[in-house]
Design brief:
102 residues, mainly alpha
Length: 102
């Protein structure tokens, strides 16, 4: 039963946040600072999620094949490779490091 209470509370919280976003006056959203934050926030959240998934295992920090794959993806991005090549490089390097026991 406690799980359903948590699910219901989360659903209500999400609805409240969505409603609060709709109630913000349009003038407040047109401010330069708000526009800049709205553009940068998704990038920061995605970077944080990527770092957490690549370098964390439970409560411990790890440096394993995922980090090598992330580095390969970063190199491909610096070289301006297409997105599919970036993903393929990350997958191949991660699989290769795991195959050799890293």
């Amino acid at each position: 039963m406690n799980t359903w209470i948590a699910v219901a509370a989360t659903a209500l919280g999400c609805y409240a946040v969505k409603l609060a976003g709709l109630l913000v006056p349009a003038g407040a959203l047109e401010r330069p600072l708000v526009k800049r934050l709205a553009a940068l926030l998704p990038v920061a959240l995605l970077a944080a999620l990527t770092a957490q998934q690549a370098f964390a295992d439970g409560r411990a920090l790890v440096l394993d094949a995922r980090a090598a794959g992330l580095a390969a993806a970063a190199v491909a991005l610096v070289l301006r490779a297409p997105f599919l090549i970036v993903v393929a490089a990350a997958v191949l390097v991660t699989a290769g490091v795991r195959a050799v026991g890293g």
